[in-house]
Amino acid sequence: MSIAGEPPTGTTGPTVPAERIVARLRRHARALFWPSLLLIVASGVAGYGLPRLTETWVQITAWGALAVVIVFGWLFPVLWWLGQRTTVTTRRVIVRSGFFVRVRQEVLYSRIYDVSVRTSWVQSAFRSGDVLINTGADRPVILRDVPGAALVQRSLHDLTDAAHGSGISMRWQEEPSALPDQSVVWGGR
């Protein structure tokens, strides 16, 4: 590539397909239920309770306390939720987190050897779950509370198989492992 973004002229070689974004994921929006409920209650208190206070210093103190509750109980959780995101491309999985301090974690499909899903009873009611991407490192990369976790797992399996070039997912469907009339006896001669 040249500085202008155009391919240099006269180059020959294998063309590598461009990396495309397959999906962008966030945690399930269920995480915003309690902060949203707190905002509704705080708005009700501000609309009905605070005008009933008679003294000025009490009103100023109540408005200040209400502002602190809204900032720490609604604004920070929403910003935290917006700061957590995962991008699945045709070559890798990119996990970004943080608002002021950013953390970026990338996993190439060639490094992935297992993708599993862990769900709690609440997550299974909403068809979400934690997707664990095992790379052989100490700890797996965890995509927490992803909506449609089973679909994400199947997609990651397909992308990993394509990256490894094995085509295992298609081969086991086409070729049975043993014919019905053939059996394997272990330890027999």
UniProtKB/TrEMBL annotation:
It holds the Pfam family bPH_2. Keywords: Membrane, Transmembrane, Transmembrane helix. Residues 81-154 form the YdbS-like PH domain. The keyword Repeat does not apply. InterPro entries: YdbS-like_PH. The keyword Aminoacyl-tRNA synthetase does not apply. It comes from the Bacteria. The chain crosses the membrane at residues 31-50, 62-82. This is PH domain-containing protein.
